[in-house]
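INTERNAL AUDIT FORM
Audit reference: QA-55
Scope: verify that the stored structure record matches its stored sequence.
Auditor: D.O.
Record contents follow.
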Amino acid sequence: MRIEQLEYLAAVTRYGSLRRASEQLHVSQPAISEAIRKLERELGVTLLDRRRSGARISLAGRELLQPIVDVLESVDRLKAAAGDQLATRRMLRIGTVNAGTASLVLPAVRAFQATNSRAAVEVRNLQQDEIHVSLAEGTLDLGLVNLLDGDDLPPDLEATPLLVGRPAAVLPAGHPLAAQAAVSADDLRGERFVAMRSGYLMYRFAHRLFGSDLPAAWHSTDGAEMGKMMVAEGIGLTVLPDYSVLGDPLERAGLIVTRPLAGDTTVVTMTALHRRQARVLPAVLQVLGHLREQARQPLPVRTA
């Protein structure tokens, strides 16, 4: 058994197919396939489902993925302890919901790179369930998600609260409802509404807010960033965590504003997640520290 065989299998899982793993690793598909075949013969299990449409990791492969990831992380730690500079260039993989990208993740990555100039970082915008699965499989190192009161997390994930806020109505600055101190669900029902697509936390909250009486004009989109742009363009109104809007460039430029939701006491928390394990990678702890520091920063003041 060779380390590269394990790396090849982990790459097929991470990138979703043999072809994509080949492109990312700059190793030919036949070479990766043959290395994994040898590993299959050695272990006595089929690790890849090979079909005409391509090869993907099998169920048996997924069951063995966690021990494989543990071995690769142990190798990384061994290289780091030995002073191998290659280990410090291991790609740090971060998954985030849209609401955390601009306000938290990007400043934290910039601070991390200031002291780790040779480190590579991959940031992926994902839905919350995708982040949970990818963390469990070891294809992400760190994840940022929004949680509502009472939401449960998988027991194998460690949670660090970063930002606490409330869902708020997001409006174009010149909209008549912006003159109100608060906006009600009935106010929103009478407007074109931009909902997050199914799978996003704010999709779930919107259905809780409106119940069965949804706004008649209902648009949908992927994530907070596109939702804010649609509001700024006058396409509709939306509901997002207040911390994902306050300090946003569109809000600072005076194009969008937030208003509290009348009578709503829901709390939403931006939370960092990583796998529970005996030793967390130093890079993960560093980025987590930068995220905490960024979360403590005051929000920028909106420009005139």
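Auditor finding: record pair retrieved intact. The chain has three domains: 1-85, 89-160+269-299, 167-266.
Action required: none
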